[in-house]
Sequence to fold (87 residues):
Amino acid sequence: MNGTLGLMEKALQKQSASDWARMFGITSATFTNAKARGHLSPALAGSLAMELGENAEHWIAVAAIESEKDSPLVQRLRKSQESWRKR
Fold:
């Protein structure tokens, strides 16, 4: 699964955006907005991960990296994340 949009797709296979939104007390537009931005917020990623039995800390970190502007530091973190996935 690549990135937080992959996590969202996995969640949407389980139930609709409206159902998730109702469960979390947010609007379903949150999912539409996330798709348009190309990533989930750390809070939404962590919440979905917990409900899906995934490692919430991992997905919070992924979301935080995805939301950063590109920089040498972010590139370094992405490379580190890629090598971690290969393990």
Notes: Residues 72-86 form the longest helix (15 residues). The two ends are 14 Å apart (CA to CA). The chain has a mean pLDDT of 90.
